[in-house]
Amino acid sequence: MKKVDLSPKISTFPMPVAVISVGTGEDANLITLAYVGKVCFDPPIIAISIQPKRYSFHLIEKYGEFVINYPTIEQLRESDYCGTRSGREVNKWKKLNLTKQDASVIQVPMIKEFPWNMECKVIKRIELGSHICYFGKVVATHSDPIYVKNETLDPEKFNFPVYISSNYLELKKGVLAKHGFTLDSSF
Ligand SMILES: Cc1cc2nc3c(=O)[nH]c(=O)nc-3n(C[C@H](O)[C@H](O)[C@H](O)COP(=O)(O)O)c2cc1C
């Protein structure tokens, strides 16, 4: 197979479109992030990376907590808005008619209208270069029940947008196979 060499800057794929809440009360802000990934199962830890020039940076530094809110495809406009405007200039909650919902463990509010919310407490931060990486321990997760099966995200119902090469994508074809399908006797 012939291959082309690419820049090491090429990322893993797909990345999520995640709208993160940071700050509390009147200070609360929203920022869209694609640099979001699960890095540990027990305890459950998710890493997010934020550039220090973002307005949200000082809020995560100040409060040490954040919420990962996942939008549906229909909420893509709100998600792009939160990733292209700064909380320095606009109150994104008010502009987008989004409601602050009290989280169950942390002080940072969740987005009520978004179907999937994970409350996280920062347990570690690493300055990597362009981004500061925050490791958040997930202390509570909430979902619209239609997306849940066997206490986890139902892959058949999943319709959250994903992000590849500066474009938003919809994952259309659905499940290919179940984890471990090669353990079956035909292999
Ligand atoms: C799809 C998408 C993904 C993004 N991912 C990141 C990211 O992972 N880290 C980051 O620092 N900024 C990321 N951004 C840029 C910020 O969301 C954007 O600069 C935002 O306006 C910052 O808001 P704030 O100044 O209110 O914090 C992303 C933007 C979009 C649209």
Protein model, in words:
The chain has 187 residues and is mainly β. Helix content is 11%, strand content 36%. The chain has helices at residues 55-63, 76-82, 92-95; strands spanning 15-16, 18-22, 29-33, 36-40, 45-50, 65-70, 100-101, 110-111, 116-127, 132-143, 148-149, 152-153, 162-164, 167-169. The protein has a single domain, classed as Pnp Oxidase, Chain A. The chain has three helices and 14 strands. The protein binds flavin mononucleotide (FMN). Residues 17, 29, 31-35, 49-51, 54-56, 80, 83-88, 163 line the site of flavin mononucleotide.
List the helices and strands and how they pair.
Elements: E1 15-16, E2 18-22, E3 29-33, E4 36-40, E5 45-50, H1 55-63, E6 65-70, H2 76-82, H3 92-95, E7 100-101, E8 110-111, E9 116-127, E10 132-143, E11 148-149, E12 152-153, E13 162-164, E14 167-169
Antiparallel strand pairs: 1-13, 2-3, 2-6, 4-5, 5-10, 6-9, 7-8, 9-10, 11-12, 13-14
The structure holds flavin mononucleotide.
Flavin mononucleotide binds next to strand 3, strand 5 and helix 1.
Question: What does this entry show, briefly?
Answer:
Helices cover 11% and strands 36% of the residues. With 187 residues, the chain is mostly beta strands.
Q: DSSP strand (E) fraction?
A: 35-45%
Count the domains.
1
* Average pLDDT metric: 95
Spatial gap, N to C terminus: 25 Å
Which terms would index this structure?
187 residues; mainly beta; Pnp Oxidase, Chain A; seven-stranded antiparallel sheet; three-stranded antiparallel sheet; binds flavin mononucleotide
